[in-house]
Amino acid sequence: MVLTNLWLFGGLVQRTMTRTPQTNALLRTTTAITMIEGGIKTNILPPNASARVNYRLAPGDNLETVIEHTRRAIAEPKLKISRPSAGGRNASPVSPTDSPAFTLLAGVIRQIFRDVPVTPFLVTGATDARHYSSICQNIYRFSPLLATRDDMGRVHGIAECISIQNLENMLQFFIRLIQVWGDRFLV
User: Fold this and answer.
1) C-beta neighbour count of 108 within 10 angstroms
2) Do residue 174 and residue 128 come from a single domain?
3) Burial of 109 by CB count in 10 Å (0-12 exposed, 13-18 middle, 19+ buried)?
4) Of 39, 58, 74, which residue is a domain's last?
5) Range(s) of the domain holding residue 131
6) Among 36, 117, 130, 182, which is most buried by a count of CB atoms within 10 Å?
7) 146 falls within a domain
């Protein structure tokens, strides 16, 4: 109820989400220094140093504004800030929730996961979906599993795994989604 009435509960949701790093990252562009290079010995100052920063852009932000914000925040004229050689990417567009595709997706989610509430959510990691935004506006990133706090701590870790029940739910979900979308969109 709370998430479907953000016009009333938006402030409460935002205050609650800022309390943990995982949900706080859903509210804004995040910054992580992932690579630092510099000196070669502990007793010699390096003539040059560099750092690579990974930004995960929130919807509404773009690379130019994030780089400009970084320049202003650091306020060091000698520091050179440049775009990545790979180009970087802006945040993906937000997909509509008032479309037939979303309605059918939400219905399948409720069928498999026993009438859970379905609300939009922000995926902070890069997905293959970014390659489809130029040809389709209905791009929904959804992982059909019920994850516990322990499960979330294992994502991309040494002990990354899912339960047998989650595997069964995932299979049921994708089978049903293909059936429903095939009947609706391929006829």
Assistant:
1) 22
2) yes
3) buried
4) 74
5) 100-185
6) 130
7) yes
Handedness of CA 117, 121, 127, 131 (dihedral sign): positive
Which secondary structure element, helix H or strand E, spans residue 165, and what is its range?
A: helix 164-185
Q: What is the pTM of this model?
A: 0.72
Quick: pLDDT tens for 162-177. Answer: 889 999 999 999 999 9
By the 8 A CB rule, do 91 and 58 touch? yes
Q: Each residue of 20-40: pLDDT tens digit?
A: 888 888 888 999 898 999 999
Q: For the beta carbon of residue 82, count every other beta carbon within 10 angstroms.
A: 6
Cα 100-105-130 angle, rounded to 5 deg: 90
The answer to whether position 82 is within a domain reads no
Tally the domains of the chain: 2
Last residue of a domain, one of 57, 74, 91: 74
Tokens (6 digits) for 166: 């989650």
